[in-house]
Amino acid sequence: MALFNWSNEYSVNIKEIDEQHKVLISLINELHDKMKVGKAKEVLGDILDKLIDYTVYHFKHEENLFASNGYPDSNIHKTVHVGLVQQVKEIKKNFEGGKVVLSMEVMNFLKGWLGNHILGTDKKYSSYLNSKGVS
Question: Into how many domains does the chain fold?
Fold first, then answer.
């Protein structure tokens, strides 16, 4: 059973961004699945690396859309991105250092981290970019 299910409520009405969000959801679900069956630390670490790398890629893509379309709240959104990447990197660092185990608490944090970002921060740029012809 997936921890995080995509629904239309998460759509920002930009096909490429929605697809990227689905990849991020898939990575969180993969991490959750491996955690539940007690996979080795290295496997979980690799999935965390993929999640971090794809998050950075996704955020850069959003920021490029902001720049090319003159999104007025771009700097605020970029600041949020930096903070979110740092939070996930901190989880990875603590996981590798044995300071934190991947638990349901951590998984629920990741789910909330992404879900709240999409529903809150990302939904704010949706109508602006749509008005510029981005869909």
Answer: 1
Q: What average pLDDT does the chain have?
A: 90
Half-sphere exposure of 85 (CA within 13 A, CB side): 16
Q: How far apart are CA 108 and CA 115, in angstroms?
A: 10
Q: Enter the DSSP assignment of 3.
A: S
Contacts of residue 132, defined as CB under 8 A and 6 or more positions apart, other chains included, come to 69, 70
Cα–Cα distances (Å) from 61 to 16, 41, 109, in that order, read: 10, 30, 24
The model's pTM: 0.89
* CATH number, domain with residue 20: 1.20.120.50
Q: Which domain holds residue 18?
A: 14-131
Start-to-end CA span in the chain (Å): 31
In a domain, 50, yes or no: yes
